[in-house]
Amino acid sequence: MPAELRRAAAALAAGSGPVAVDTERASGYRYSQRAYLVQLRREGAGTVLVDPVALNDEVDVLIEALAGTEWVLHAASQDLPCLAELGMRPSKLFDTELAGRLAGYERVALGTLVERVLGYRLEKGHGAADWSRRPLPREWLNYAALDVELLVPLRDALEAELASQGKLEWALEEFDALRDAPTPEPRKEPWRRTSGIHRARGARALAFVRALWEVRDSIARERDVAPGRVLPDSAIVDAAVAAPIDEVGLVKLPVFRGRAQRRLAGTWARALRTAAELPRNELPDPSPQQDGPPPPNRWADKDPAAAARLSAARASLGALAESLRMPVENMIQPDLVRRICWQPPADISVDGTTAALRAGHARNWQIGLVAEPLSKALHTPPPTG
């Protein structure tokens, strides 16, 4: 283990107060979402930049140094997964982005909040860079260090503001829920999120999208390259719509006629042929069953009573969120509201609604705010005529 890492860990352990934490990934360049740089700052220790790649992800001494400390992150949900891959998990968490939302700030990007709350302007310019590059340029490292420079002062100012608004306990409950959130389940049929897939009409065209997406994903994973750099979504959809029957037809399409794609033309063409030969019962469903209620714009036709309940709920919860100066989606998950309005509990009293909210993993502070207005919305009579 490098002596520099041991010295940095000792300094962090000897520091005081919360630890500001950030990571840099290579989204848009790499398939993985691993951390290519970890930034840490603590009072009395200064700023530490850690290269997990050079350390082969061996950061046990760092994990020990941070044990029991509060971590301060901005938009923690983006950083916690790649930190967990390194074995780094916070005992206590403060998320300055989430704190800003609860405190009523409409714009909660780190630079915006720092300027608005603390009066400093952060340098911009390298957030979307390829952080897998080695060696990292000095100006990139300076930029990365600035991301943790003011996180703790920002945390302190937002904590005071939340306390003055009577929202601090709400925020602490949210931070705990964020820290303890389980790893999301892999998406079912992730290929359906291909940008522009609405242009691929019919089951066979969707089979072409699926085949190309799956081959692209395999290549991207093997090369550790972002899928869009292997083949853009737009090219996948173009091929699904045109449905060329061989390589000759394929390479006439935009993107596929380029030099890089010509080298893979046989691979893409085989995927398309395989999809073209699938029996009808193996084709993807053009209208797969949704997990949950249908889109709200269809409710009035499918279930007018549910549409009336949802309209009443949105109105009352929107007014409540506005009075509290926070986004309604932070006050209560809109998907949970839709599910309850679509299929209300047998008991639509406040107690019954509370039970439904709790079953949907709403936090205690959220339930205390929304159970009563949501219960009233569930009592909305169906439209007449």
TrEMBL record:
> Which Pfam families does the record cross-reference, listed alphabetically?
DNA_pol_A_exo1, DNA_pol_A_exoN, HRDC
Location of region: Disordered: 277-302
Entry-linked InterPro entries: 3'-5'_exonuclease_dom (IPR002562), Exo_C (IPR041605), HRDC-like_sf (IPR010997), HRDC_dom (IPR002121), HRDC_dom_sf (IPR044876), RNase_D-like (IPR051086), RNaseH-like_sf (IPR012337), RNaseH_sf (IPR036397)
Give one GO biological process term: nucleobase-containing compound metabolic process
The residue ranges of the HRDC domain are 202-282
Q: Name one GO molecular function term.
A: nucleotide binding
Where are the compositionally biased (Pro residues) regions? 285-297
What protein name is recorded for this chain?
Ribonuclease D
Q: What is the lineage of its organism?
A: Bacteria, Bacillati, Actinomycetota, Actinomycetes, Pseudonocardiales
